[in-house]
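Deliverable D4.2, example record:
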Amino acid sequence: MEIGIDSFAMLLNDPATGRLQSAIDRMESVLAEVELADQVGLDVFGMGEHHRENALDSAPAVILAAAAARTKSIRLTSAVAVLSAADPVRLFQEFATLDLISRGRAEIVVGRGSSVEAYPLFGFDLRDYDALFAEKLDLLLKIREKPRIEWQGRFRPSLSGEGVFPRPHQPTLPIWLGVGGTPESFIRAGTLGLPLMVAIIGGSFERFLPLVELYRRAWLAADHPSEEQRVGVHALGFVGETDKAAREAFFPGWFQMFTDAGRERGWPPPTQAQFDFMCGPNGAFLVGSPQTVAAKIEHINRTLGGVSRLTFQMSTAALETEAMRRSIELLGTHVAPIVRAHRLGRSR
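Output generated by the structure prediction step:
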């Protein structure tokens, strides 16, 4: 199993002063985080995509290119590129360029996006939410196959053999399908033979097993090689010296982020009780000591029948700079070795 971290490059308000973090300082801390992740042997770093005042990740490929220049081994990917609101040609060019800069370490996770501010920003209608994604994914995969194609669609000008360059260093640029809880999305990933990245930010891991099984059945029904199947999980997580230290460092940013999200989407405010449950043995947060987190990773692997990649979204603790650094260090030097020693990730 590969272990990594995802960042949304969020700006948070200091609870003591109410002041918003400096954008320039936060960007530097993001790059320092991926540099440290590389140094401690983590496998992958993902950058999110949001188009809002309190986030710095509207151009993830640019941030990842800066990270590529400061790292040597870690793979660099979008956490989820909002493909429905993007131009597949431009997205491929950006990540092919990243692949050249990083000497073959680029990947893309594409999805429809749970945050929808990109749609009106780039002139797309939310009523076309799924149609946009299906068409643009088709184009992106065709471009990956060869640089010159004939293509027509509803939402983008046609292609008549114009070349899409540069080409990546890797023979095939890895493209994962990022999904939430929509069964059709799991089936689509399996049918197309794409690796699956499941965002699990609440509830329990058990409720996603039927969806993952849909993916596996669709994969086999489409006659893709069973050994090439890959299931990844993106989850909220944070590692501390103790369970208490991890929870205390992670809670303030989590509370702020989900309070803001609830205000926008009509959810009730989050509570301490919800947080404590999610951090407990039956919840979906990977927050705690190295031993607690490693045990929970083993539980995820068993529950979902084998997980190939697990990425931690820990940037809600960005105000705690030293705690963030220590969390990344513990993840790389304590948690990842346990996972590797147990040879997790083999699919049933």
